[in-house]
Amino acid sequence: MPRKLIKKYLPDESSLRENKHLSWLGSSLHDPSLWHLTRKSVSRAFLVGIFCAFLPVPFQMIIAAVLALVIRSNIPISVGLVWLTNPLTMPPIFYFTYLVGSYLLNTPPMSIDFDLEKLHHILEQIWWPLLTGSVFCGVVFGVISYFVTSYFWVWHVRRTWSRRRLK
Predict the structure, then answer these.
(1) Grouped pLDDT means (10 residues each) for the chain, 167 residues
(2) CA 133, CA 99: separation in Å to the nearest integer?
(3) What angle do CA 136, 34, 146 make, to 5 degrees?
(4) What is the DSSP string of the chain?
(5) What confidence score (pLDDT) does residue 137 get?
(6) Within a 13 Å sphere around the CA of 119, how many CA atoms are in the beta-carbon half?
(7) Against a cut of 0.85, is the pTM above it?
């Protein structure tokens, strides 16, 4: 995997450790496996980041950081991947997960017209299918991204070694 390219865009490890908003995590941030770019840590980071990106809750980045600590994945990549769901991509992604959740729960999807006065009532009706579909899609796409990333890493290393042998 091109480590130089990834390191170029990641925040500095010491600046994250000294961040006052992350101080509640204590000494667990000092584990080097949370910062190194290895096949396992990056693959796990994709699993965590993609899963958390599909969660329809606020503070997805905090959830991703805590899950990254628990399963020992690369924290910056885990947290960065959460931004796949941003204000531009959230409506289509969460509508898709709502449809998947409706299908899984065998309930007909509602036609939704976004009226701010009725928003609370609409959320009460769509919350369970949305959450079910989001967790399902998060797990499925997270596991797929884990295996694709792991396979790509192995492929890239083999290709690099074969090119070295040819020289």
Answers:
(1) 62 67 64 75 93 92 89 88 91 92 90 68 83 96 95 90 87
(2) 7
(3) 35
(4) --HHHHHHHSPPHHHHHT-GGGGGGGGGGG-GGGTS--HHHHHHHHHHHHHHHT--SS-HHHHHHHHHHHHT--HHHHHHHGGGS-TTTHHHHHHHHHHHHHHHTT-PPPP----GGGHHHHHHHHHHHHHHHHHHHHHHHHHHHHHHHHHHHHHHHHHHHHHHHH-
(5) 96
(6) 4
(7) no
How far is the C-alpha of 58 from the C-alpha of 115, rounded, in Å?
21
Two tokens at 145? 């991204």
Q: Give pairs for 139-145: CB < 8 Å, separation 24+.
A: 139/51, 141/50, 141/51, 141/54, 142/46, 142/47, 142/48, 142/50, 142/51, 142/54, 143/47, 145/46, 145/47, 145/50
Six token digits for residue 10: 């990641």
Q: Which token pair is 166?
A: 């040819």
> Residue 20 corresponds to which amino acid?
K
- Provide the terminal-to-terminal Cα distance of the chain, rounded to the nearest Å: 20
DSSP string for residues in 1-20 = --HHHHHHHSPPHHHHHT-G
